[in-house]
């Protein structure tokens, strides 16, 4: 289906330096090209004139990597907002809770969301689930998001690749369509 760019918004979730710091500290992630794919999406959305919303996480716990006074709170250069692109600050996993994101989208007549960012199984997943539940036509860009290895509650090691794949499987066709950057850019080019 061809969608008009004016009715489609890019939602860029938490592309912040804290994740670089996690990697530098030894946490392993998947999808090393995700930030480059996000930069490509930003370029395509800007060229098409479609709206872009930047989401930033602001930590509230004293040990958070995302405290507003910490270096981790800063956005990565590749995902920096352009003049006029709104930046919405959230303090929980969903970009819709405690923010005016939904009202901004509704006021602009936006019906379709394209979601990318970090991390797949936390803020991206929560935002995507809520977007679907709120009735937005939602696309999650599989190659423009990433996550980290984690230990499960029983001490089992789960790879970032497995977590990423399971999250996409859980969201697919229930809350969102799972798409690639190239599919999104092609949609923008033909709209």
TrEMBL record:
Q: Which Gene3D superfamilies match?
A: Isochorismatase-like
Q: Which InterPro entries match?
A: Isochorismatase-like_dom, Isochorismatase-like_hydrls, Isochorismatase-like_sf
**Domain Isochorismatase-like stretches:** 8-183
Q: Which UniProt keywords apply?
A: Hydrolase
What the entry lists under SUPFAM superfamilies is as follows: Isochorismatase-like hydrolases (SSF52499)
Q: Name one Pfam family in it.
A: Isochorismatase
* Organism superkingdom: Bacteria
Q: Any signal peptide, and if so, which residues? A: none
GO molecular function ontology, one term from the record:
hydrolase activity
Q: Any idea what this protein is called?
A: Isochorismatase
């Amino acid at each position: 289906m061809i969608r008009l760019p004016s009715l489609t918004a890019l939602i860029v979730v938490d592309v912040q330096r804290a994740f670089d710091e996690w990697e530098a500290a030894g946490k392993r992630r998947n999808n090393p090209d995700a930030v480059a794919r996000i930069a490509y999406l930003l370029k395509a959305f800007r060229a098409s004139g479609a709206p872009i919303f930047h989401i930033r996480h602001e930590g509230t716990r004293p040990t958070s990597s995302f405290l507003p006074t910490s270096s981790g709170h800063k956005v990565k250069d590749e995902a920096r907002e352009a003049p006029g692109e709104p930046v919405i600050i959230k303090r929980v996993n969903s970009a819709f809770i405690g923010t005016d994101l939904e009202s901004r989208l509704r006021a602009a007549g936006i019906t379709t969301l394209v979601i990318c960012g970090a991390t797949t199984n936390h803020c991206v997943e929560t935002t995507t689930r809520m977007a679907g539940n709120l009735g937005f036509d939602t696309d999650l860009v599989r190659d423009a998001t990433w996550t980290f290895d984690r230990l499960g509650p029983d001490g089992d090691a789960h790879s970032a690749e497995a977590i990423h794949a399971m999250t996409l499987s859980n969201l697919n066709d229930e809350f969102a369509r799972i798409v690639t950057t190239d599919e999104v850019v092609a949609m923008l080019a033909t709209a």
